[in-house]
Protein: ABC transporter ATP-binding protein
Amino acid sequence: MRSLPEADPGTPDIRTPFRYLLWNARRQKSALAAGIGFATLWWLGQALVPAVLGKGVDAVTAKNTHDLLIWSAILLGLGLLQAFAGIMRHRFAVTNWLAAAYRTVQVTARHAARLGATLPKRLSTGEVVSVGNSDIAHIGGSMDILLRGTGSIVAIITVTVYLISASLPLGLLVLFGVPLMAVAVGPLLKPLHKRQKAHRHLLGELSTRSADIVSGLRVLRGIGGEQVFAERYREESQRVRHAGVRVAGVESLLEGAQIFLPGVLIAVVTGIGASFALGGQITPGQLVAFYGYAVFLIGPMRTLTEAADKLTKGHVAARRVIRILGMEPEVNGGAGATDGGVLRDSYSGVTLQPGAVTALSAATPEEAIDIADRLGRYVPGDVTFGGVDLAELPIPEVRERILVADNGARLFSGRLRDELDVRGNASIDEVRQALRTACAEDIVDALPDGLDTVVAESGREFSGGQQQRLRLARALLADPEVLILVEPTSAVDAHSEARIADRLAKARAGRTTLICTSSPLVLDRTDHVVYVEGGRVLAEGPHRELLATSTAYAGTVTRGED
Structure:
């Protein structure tokens, strides 16, 4: 038996929580079927024990040693069956839990990668994190409970058949009593569902708040805002706590119902069975069996209540998952192809010639960012690449050939060399050359293990300028056909900026490069400068020529200075 079924890597086209859970079940139907089989054997082994025990009591009453030995051997066999089936049931329970949970991780992570820049625009970080933190556990739990839940139903049916065959009134009492108890807890499920949904929503917002505070902690300390944000976080966490208490209130009623309702049934069945035994309608052994079944039924009944609870939680969790899976990227690709060449944004008129280092200076930073996003196909736009509409190319090909590197990019945790050489195919000399171009050699030299140093999450041990230079080195190592850099030197000193500008042109010789910047040091070292105002190209040419001929350009790059 495999320890874990292979998770389906595909993304389901599903719009309802129930269908998502059903889709998960179908993907692991073999493991589910095996688990249900072992769970059924496990429950049946327990269900038959009171009947066998009753037969043994009757054999003792009749002083029949032969029958006593037979029923004792059967009882031993049932114990061994329970032990084996219990072990296998638990193994398959864990298998199904993990398969459903981590299949959810796979499909959501895959779809999040496909959504790209669309996801953070439509969903908060906290809500996405909640899927991996709690929702996968509830979805896995909904698959796990199917095993014991199905087996408990079979066990209840088996017990009912035995009771009816032994005593019709007692059998009918159990037959109608069990469904009535299941119906009795039904009204609790709707408020539980509602409160769990509200709790998860607040939890997602709190996760977003905590992520924002952690990422901006340095800024908060600089402006003295730690206490203010700590108070806000405390208020929101209290709202989450109160919502959790409301959920726990309904769950406590469910837990109480799991004890109280079966207890009532036990008392009624035992009382009636005792009266029948005194009247001679049933044997002492059957009375023992009836009492044993009355106690035994607590387990299946609690399992059914637990199944209702876990399936409800799974339904709530699946709703969040399909919310992510139901999103579509803002941009989609086609099946076209191009040999590359001129990259042109028709709306603004910005044109990148192959092999040239072009600078884009805009009256406002937002205009440059909008053009970079269109050229990189992160937002829709009328852009051509080698005469072919960029929208006709497959998105993976666009991402492979056109790289937009801005200051919103993050450094991930892990070995520094792996974080710089994300494709894993650069030699050590190429890594060193990229670091030199980005003036980041001193950063690596200062680290205890150099390129083998493990970087913390978001590269928080580095200053803003150091992070910017490392991100530039990472973009250079990717070596795309077209590299679009958005303000790559805004956080470095003037001397480093001048060196980077000189080295960047040499490093990108023969490949198309666009640098969105208003820095005169960088603009003066590019082949061609394009000035945009109002979203359109207003002037273009060499930097020094534009300074002399375009008042608007000169005012932007010199910031009004002579």
Confidence is low (pLDDT under 50) at residues 1-9. The longest helix spans residues 226-278. The CA atoms of residues 79 and 426 lie 62 Å apart.
